Amino acid sequence: MNRMRVKGLMRKEVYEIVRDPSSIAIAFVLPLVLLLIFGYGVSLDARSVPVAEVVEQPTYLTASFLSELDHSPWFHPARYPDQASAEQAMMQGRVQAILWLRSDFSRRSLSSGETPIHLTINGVDANQARIIQNYVNGTWQTWLQQQATLQGQPLAVPVVADVRIWFNPALTSRDYLIPGLIAIIMTLIGALLTALVVAREWERGTMEGIMVTPVAKTEILLGKLVPYFVMGMGGMMLSTAMAVFLFHVPLRGSLTVLIGSAALFLLTALGMGLAISVLARSQFVAAMVAIVTTFLPAFILSGFLFDIRSMPQAIQVLTHIVAARYFVATLQSSFLAGDLWSVIVPNLLGLAVLCIVFLGLSVLRFRKRLD
To answer: Which residues contact 117 (CB under 8 A, 6 or more apart)?
Structure first.
């Protein structure tokens, strides 16, 4: 490998990047847009859920309990005169739950055992239905405890849970989503940037000129890899800075470990893009293949949104060839828990294996031939 030839190829690629601002947009504008969309527009938290309130016999106790719901950020309550009108509102999609306080609410509110409220939840979205149920149960238990304290009576509860929440004590979905989103962004950046590189050379007819030069195929691939690696790491640092300073996601792990794992993952993503670009001689085909084979699996099968352990066994096995799976786990550990080496080391080993596979495939499949 000749250092001067590699430097010349890298300089040529830098000129191509400057001439084609789409590469800069992919590396820096795309992370900015995706982080703003997901950070502000996507949330797994249920807030301001429209809830219908039906009270058969208003008393000071019903008013006290409903005030807990009225002042909760999780609910947007609306009062209905009877159960039938509330059910009609749920059928029309105007409310997601019905809280029915029957006439014996005041008499049985502090008795042990039975719950004198009736909760009906729209179960179309099963995840939101479970969240609403938990929110109402939590509000109910809090109110019961307050009433028992005011009356100087112990609340008869068979089991008292002492809950400790680790790593994300605020239970904010944004803190969980943003680290995983960085992995998705870097997958898209690495795969798209390099998937278009060789394909663009074929479309513009400049690959023939490279083929007649004395450069080796490893020098060609390295000359194209290094500039986009630098751009990808710049996009990664931008994403991390936005996560910490704009969205206030805690970074509890070491920045050195984060950068090292990001570099390894970016090499893997660039290797996937190079493998695609070697096989596809059209930029359009290369871009479509990159999105289908890298971005979509990373989005669905990496654990970013869906827990891998809840997937069918065959799909769980399939996720082991998705590089983003390993990086998502590493990022969530680094941001929320710290440097947990029992989590980080196995995932870095998995990334290293995939990195060797994809970069090796790129070298083996690349030929200095026009056929």
So the answer is: 99, 100, 101, 102, 105, 140
